[in-house]
Amino acid sequence: MILIADSGSTKTDWVLWNSDNDQIHSFKTIGLNPYFVNSQQVTEVVAEVLKDFDTSAVEKVYFYGSGCASKESIATLRNGLKPVCAHSEIFIDHDLMAAARALFANKKGIACIIGTGSNACLYDGNKITKEAVSYGYIMGDEGSGNHLGRLLLKSIFSKRAPQEIIDAFRQDYPQVDLSYLLEELYHSDFPNRFLAGFSPFLYKYKKEDFIRGLIAQSFSQFIDEFVMDLMGNEKYPISFQGSIAYLYQDILEEVLQTKGLVMGSIIKEPITPLLSYHRRK
Question: What is the pLDDT of residues 176-198, one digit of tens each?
Fold first, then answer.
């Protein structure tokens, strides 16, 4: 059996494939970004996922996740996976590799992630050859759910948003005053998830000119910060993975067109094409 995980800051998609009978089992759990969880929490989640299966039969584990860039973060995940998957070969890679393999398989292109967070890379059909600099949710993540949440909240509390948008926000989120906002940002465990949690409001009002402009501004910043340096002098296909890119793909495509770029494929989640990739392997 092969276990594959695609983990973001908000959730993790799992698929367990039995190559003997071609059975597939799918699961969803909390996100396992090693910047926000420890090894013990990883162990508890994996144990729950595999509780009904013989873990000694799991030959390989492919874990793709946000935050899997440093030796320390990879060690956190490996130490969390090993107690449950003691008989498995464990491969841990960045969520960018998951996006690249899911979007392009063995072809060249620029793979972009726009979900709770954001990132992008240049992929040569086998490996990532260049990666954009990602500063995380505090300094970067342009285009992402948490960046959109930041822009929305600042426009609400600075009263730059139209009054009808402010009134609608107050009606939908009566508890969110400035003290509540600051408490969530500086004292909660997952401020990035908190910020991204305002995407339903943006989606609800995305036809309003102000909200549409705010989303377009965020995507434009993403292209400028993440994609243009990767593009260089060659016109690579640009494809996207992630809930925010998927939900607002019409606005994203408009932004690309204004910059003379063309959107390739777009997927909400990579787990199904990732399974196809590893089955072919």
Answer: 998 888 888 888 877 888 888 89
